Amino acid sequence: MKGCHHAGKMRTTLNLDDDMFERLREYAENRSVSLGKAASELVRKGLDAPVETRRVNGFCAVVLPPGGPQVSTERVRRLLEDEK
After folding, report:
1. pTM score > 0.85 for this model?
2. Are 43 and 28 spatial neighbours (Cβ–Cβ below 8 Å)?
3. Is residue 7 part of a domain?
4. So what's the pLDDT on residue 51?
């Protein structure tokens, strides 16, 4: 719709994993804000966070900060197995 823009609050439904809902609830409680406000803050932080990337063999890779954890091929294999 041309010229249509939504400003302010918008109601929606989110399907969250149980563990993420619990973390969101704790975040909201610790800051005395609503779940919606907490979700908005966290989404904004995540989307606004700078992420340095570079091309490696044609793929986009995230550049980890110095001293960050090393991710081995074995670790990736284990994580992929855990998803099954």
Report:
1. no
2. no
3. no
4. 85
